[in-house]
Write a structure and sequence with these properties.
The chain is an alpha/beta fold. It is about 40% helix and about 15% strand. It has a 5-stranded mixed beta sheet with strand order 1-3-2-4-5, with helices on both faces.
């Protein structure tokens, strides 16, 4: 599990306490977003993603702190390019919400995964495996850290910029992928 904000962190802690078995909860360093935390946390159904925004051209599946970035990216693509972009807070890597993923991948031309982890063997890889096992040939763009040593102790924004994870770099990458999709795929699926 990986929470998008402080309120979801409390809900995920509650979920862990109610599970009859092991759980893994990953949260980022630093301060939270500053969202209001409800008085009593609520357990989250294990393996259920949360659709935050519907879209018909691109669906972004994001984890943890990347959810906020995904919402900003969706807003910008909609405003500047008139692209309909949905956002899913994946919340779980394992178990992955395969039912939602496969249903969305069947109707949108492009899926984007966004994770604050190394791409190799990470969330985007799990999405690719699920799509392959579901015999779904969706186009996928994976956004995340490179599979090499990333220095620590530096401002996170500086590190993201150095590794192609700034909001501008992500925007350019997703827009380029969208523009380079097969015109037939976009016409038949959009």
């Amino acid at each position: 599990m990986q929470p998008k904000d402080e309120d979801e962190l409390a809900d995920m802690l509650e979920t862990c306490l109610k599970l009859d078995g092991p759980a893994f909860l990953r949260y980022p360093r630093g301060a939270g977003r500053g969202v209001k935390v409800k008085e009593a946390p609520v357990a989250i159904p294990v393996g259920c993603a949360e659709v935050l925004r519907e879209g018909s051209n691109i669906m972004i599946w994001a984890l943890g702190p990347m959810v906020h970035d995904a919402m900003g990216l969706a807003d910008r693509l909609a405003k500047e390019e008139r692209i309909s972009v949905g956002v899913v807070n994946a919340r779980f890597v394992k178990p992955l919400d395969r039912t939602l993923l496969l249903s969305q991948a069947a109707v949108v031309p492009l899926l984007v995964t966004m994770e604050d982890h190394a791409l190799s063997g990470g969330f985007g890889s799990a999405v690719l495996e699920a799509l392959q096992e579901g015999d779904c040939p969706a186009a996928v763009e994976r956004i995340g850290w490179p599979d090499r040593f990333v220095e620590h102790g530096t401002n996170v924004d500086i590190l993201r910029a150095a590794h192609g994870l700034s909001p501008e770099a992500i925007y350019r990458r997703v827009l380029d992928r969208w523009r380079n999709l097969s015109p037939q795929r976009v016409e038949t699926e959009a």
